[in-house]
Amino acid sequence: MSYESYFAERREQQLGELKEFLTIPSISALSEHKQDMIKAAEWVAGKLESAGLENVKIHQTAGHPIVYAEHLHAPGKPTILVYGHYDVQPVDPLNLWETPPFEPTERDGKLYARGATDDKGQVFLHIKAIEALLKQEQQLPVNVKFCIEGEEEISSPNLLTFLNEQQEMLATDAVLISDTSLIEKGKPAISIGLRGLCSLEVSIQASNTDLHSGTYGGGVPNALHAMVELLASLHDKQGRITVEGFYEGVPELTAAMHEEFEKQNFNEEQLKKTLGLSTTYGEEGYTFVERTGARPTLELNGVWGGFQGEGTKTVIPKEAHAKITCRLVGQQDPQRILDAIIAHLHANVQPGVTLKVKPGEKARAFDMDPSIPLLQTAADAYEAVYGTRALFTKDGGSIPIVETFSRQLSAPVIMMGFGLPDENLHAPNEHFNLENFDKGLLTIVEFLKRV
Amino acid sequence: MSYESYFAERREQQLGELKEFLTIPSISALSEHKQDMIKAAEWVAGKLESAGLENVKIHQTAGHPIVYAEHLHAPGKPTILVYGHYDVQPVDPLNLWETPPFEPTERDGKLYARGATDDKGQVFLHIKAIEALLKQEQQLPVNVKFCIEGEEEISSPNLLTFLNEQQEMLATDAVLISDTSLIEKGKPAISIGLRGLCSLEVSIQASNTDLHSGTYGGGVPNALHAMVELLASLHDKQGRITVEGFYEGVPELTAAMHEEFEKQNFNEEQLKKTLGLSTTYGEEGYTFVERTGARPTLELNGVWGGFQGEGTKTVIPKEAHAKITCRLVGQQDPQRILDAIIAHLHANVQPGVTLKVKPGEKARAFDMDPSIPLLQTAADAYEAVYGTRALFTKDGGSIPIVETFSRQLSAPVIMMGFGLPDENLHAPNEHFNLENFDKGLLTIVEFLKRV
Predict the structure, then answer these.
(1) Subunit contact A313:B323, Cβ cutoff 8 A
(2) Distance from C-alpha of A388 to C-alpha of B156, rounded to nearest angstrom
């Protein structure tokens, strides 16, 4: 039976299984979901087992568990290690979800749920592709390992230790990851670059209690004034980040790179329409694709302080808070960037208030040479299924562990993404376009057969 | 019996009654407390009745009711109308209250509860002072009217209509209000100036959904960036408000006025210690007392957008919000100020985002001539009880209706405050110093006897 027929026959049943996976609220950032993390890990282990994988094991870590499995019966053939994650982002603001985040719902050929595209849906494709190969051919064309973790959305704090301890078990010729996106519907992509990341939380305390704006207004520091002034100082009017030393290690875009970005022929008008933007925005002198693929950023992810309720409250808030993340490129060093931002904040904060900065996650950017044969094989597989050869792109997101993986296992990383850029990952109404569910299964099978 | 003995005998009982009043969560800003507003109005009416006032009536309005009462048996003597309010501010952040806001608790000679000083405690003093006079002397030395409303904390939207409709019933020679503060413990004050007020809410929308900061970061507008930049543009580095035309109608401080402020001999070091400030703050060239008494302000009362939870969420928020209030002085026109701020916001907002501004409350500043005899009588009354003559001060707060009251009833307004500036009004752990509870009762009796 052709793989098309094989998957078509099982479509409803397999979608039902994925929905089951998506009902588990495995939010790694929130400690109240600890049990759900275990449940999700067990669900993955169960599916790997029934797909025909061997030595399936849930490895405990200091945080959430890691699921391992293998199928090593292709002597002389390369080994491919599939990495993915079963954890998902938080879901607030909950009221903006059209259907509840953990009640998967199909609408217009899309499956809506938290984790649908990032990354449960894409992990599921790999399990089912292996299952199909084993059912259809009773063997695999390559050796396969799975390593599915539960802490990707919180920067994988325990994966490095696991990689170090299990170096032998995890040894591989290439790492295969599906946690990125097509350029747009019908235009596949293989990411050969990921931005790095660093994060920090900023607090300002101005007084020991909230104060009445009549009695004290104009005479005491206001934590919110100090905060907005400080945060505004991080960018100039041209969208450039003003932190001293921030751009150290950022490669200048060569004419050749400009040209490569041009080739993507990115539809900016479509993007604006989809997101409801009247204009894109960012650093002067760069296109949207360059800004998000090859330039670093400093983004405010959250800011809050004072009264947020109904009506008016004439209060001078005693404290204000902000959450910041940066995306890093090239040789930018996450620790040096954090140090530079912290120095900027201390140098620019209004005198007389107390500033506290808590550094968070850190990950280097990652880049790969597209001439590696396995990357070309992956592009061929896309072409066979999508009718369009995959382009090699730089992805704006960060999978912090990719660079570590590549270094620790001395293996190239093949990022075959099946998401779409407007699938609301990390936002309300996350979804997975089922066209890429169907084509994703076939592309993975095609790739493994060609390796 | 002396009034000292009279009040001393009844102290526990009267404090018990006040605590009963303070258990009613009469938050006028929150619609869920509608029934509590009625309960508080009925409580006030009951106490006025049992104090010996006549024609006690709860007047319905389009919002919360107004309680009226009178005692008009002193022919040939002036009429004094007591104004106050039974509504209170919201209580969040609730977790910062040492004891629950609606469970009145005595600690160190202070009574802690929302409304203890603003304004239930001070309204209560007037009811009990009248009761004492009637019990001790079977008559009042003046004619007295009470007008106690339930919408002061939301800018009294229905009081003006009531004043217009009931002009005859409310006719008076002077309005007596206790809703302000002493300068500090033992240093009484009569406010002869109140700042005006205007308020607005600002929203910025940047896209139609929250976006992933990896995929889109650096290439699309971030609502929080636009908001902090816009809000930071409202002040310059010297603490001056940059809105064009904002200072029109603000009287320049004369040397004589400087001197008057100096006389208050305000203890700035003590203030800093109490509030945990390393420095006061504000417009260059003015002292703390001048900044809060005679200068206008523009304060951020609340700012929010994006992720406020535990951990990191790499989101570009689609929207951001802010609440702003201004305190106004002299001839500043609230409507013109609002117009000027709105024009500033539209002129300075980052291109490509959608700005919405919702204007709120408006009230003019109010000033009175301290040579009016009744004001001097009030100062005498303080001197008799506190041993220190009250100073005539400018108060930073706003009682929006004071100016309207004075204009509508063609009567001076005597503001005899018994609060203290550090009693956390509008903040967690609001309280009322019981020394001023005791002395307040005596001062009001003393004043009414001297009129």
Answers:
(1) yes
(2) 67
* Least Cα separation, residue A299 to chain B (angstroms): 7
Between B257 and B433, whose confidence is greater?
A: B433
Alpha-carbon torsion (A152, A156, A162, A164), positive or negative:
positive
In this complex, do A210 and B426 lie within 8 Å of one another by their Cβ atoms?
yes
* Residue-range domains of chain A with CATH: 3-194+365-450 (3.40.630.10), 196-254+291-362 (3.30.70.360)
Q: B429: phi > 0 → left, psi -120 to 50 → alpha, else beta; which? A: left
- The string of pLDDT tens digits covering residues B390-404 is 999 877 777 777 888
Distance CA A334, CA A339 (A): 9
Q: What is the ipTM of this complex?
A: 0.75
Answer yes or no: do A154 and B300 touch at CB < 8 A: no
Report the interhelical angle of A434-450 vs A373-386 (nearest 10°). 130
The proportion of chain A whose per-residue pLDDT surpasses 90, expressed as a percent, equals 80
Q: Which of B276, B281, B325 is opposite residue A208, by nearest beta carbon? A: B276
Q: Phi first, then psi: give them for residue B302, nearest 5 degrees.
A: -165, 140
Query: Cβ separation of B327 and A213 shorter than 8 Å?
Result: yes
Q: How far is A314 from chain B (nearest CA, A)?
A: 6
Q: How many CB atoms lie within 10 A of CB A126?
A: 26
- Strands B354-363, B196-205: pairing is antiparallel
CB atoms within 10 A of CB A329: 25
* Encoded amino acid at A161, one letter: T
Residue A397: which of B214, B278, B282 has the nearest Cβ?
A: B214
b/e for B390-413, b at 16 or more Cβ within 10 A? bbbbbbbbbbbbbbbbbebbebbb
Shortest CA distance from B312: residue in chain A: A154
- pLDDT-derived band at A211 (thresholds 50, 70, 90) equals very high
Residue A345 C-alpha, separation from nearest chain B C-alpha, in angstroms: 15
Of residues A284, A239, A283, A293, the one with CA closest to residue A263: A293
As a whole number of angstroms, the distance between CA A290 and CA A294 comes to 5
Average pLDDT over residues B139-162: 94
pLDDT averaged over every residue in chain A: 94
- Fill in the DSSP letter of residue B340: H
CA B100/CA B102 separation, integer angstroms = 6
- Nearest beta carbon to residue A217 from set B90, B214, B292: B292
Write the pLDDT tens digit of every residue in A323-334.
999 999 999 999
Nearest to B384 by CA among B310, B450, B293, B297: B450
Mutate to test the interface with B, among A212, A327, A328 (most CBs of B within 10 A): A212
- Mutate one of B227, B236, B300 to test the A interface: name it (highest A CB count within 10 A): B300
Please state the φ and ψ torsions of residue A414, each to the nearest 5 degrees.
-105, 110
Angle of CA points A349, A350, A351, to nearest 5°: 110
Show residues of chain A in contact with B314, CB under 8 Å. Answer: 197, 199, 299, 301, 325, 398, 426
Structure confidence at residue A200 as a pLDDT band (50, 70, 90):
very high
By C-alpha distance, the chain B residue nearest A278 is B352
Q: Give contacts of A31 with chain B, Cβ < 8 Å.
A: 310
Judged by CB atoms closer than 8 Å, whether chains meet at A214 and B304 is answered as no
Q: What 3-state DSSP class applies to A12?
A: helix
User: Does the beta-carbon distance from A323 to B312 stay under 8 Å?
Assistant: yes
Nearest to A90 among B221, B277, B309 (CB): B309
Q: What angle do CA A158, A159, A162 make, to 5 degrees?
A: 95
Calculate the average pLDDT of chain B: 94
pLDDT at A254 exceeding the cut of 90? no
Contact residues on chain A for B199, CB-CB shorter than 8 A: 312, 314
What spatial distance separates the first Cα and last Cα of chain B, rounded to whole Å? 21
Contacts of A373 (CB under 8 A, 6+ apart): none
